[in-house]
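Practice problem: predict the structure.
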Amino acid sequence: MKTDLHPPLRDDVDGETTTVAAVRHLFRNQIQMMTSLVGLFGRRLPDGEGRDAFADLRARFDAVTFGPPDDVAPDASGRMEVDLAELARRISRHLDPDFRHRVAVKGAPILATPKRAAAVAQIIAELIIELTRRGFVGHESGSAEISIEQAADGSIAIRLVQTGPAGVTPRRDPSDLGATIADSLVRSLDGRIDRAASGPLTTDVFMPPEPTAR
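Answer:
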């Protein structure tokens, strides 16, 4: 009988080959390094669209690499605990380094597979980019509330409401790149996204429970 002298090493925790885990870790490190470089270059630019574009790119890179630490073990369904609320706070800081606007984020860690967590993270990034570039643009100060909640059945609800300045009516553009990205990601999770047609920037996202991962 032929014997494989070099069988793939397995992680006893989640069954993933150590080679795949190493590649995933390397990819995340490379993107995180690019995120830092993009942020550094953007900060050297004068205020304006160019600087804003680099800040948005940094936020998107941050979301792409979002996930549980490599040493976190999944549960029986393949899900892991992730803190999307903390990610939302971090992205808000990327986009508003001078803290001119107040963005209150409410939410406890949720359970999700790494793939779902990364998709939801990117949706959150696009919502905050839209808030910053559409809702807060042209105002010295603004405010908003973001809630991220997971129900007992595993479904996820995200709500973003701009609360200031008073009477603000942001320009809405459903063909905007960020809106297109968010809509596509929500559809990929069989969810729905609803945006208020007028008044303060208000967006509701709902994603049903994910299928059992294993």
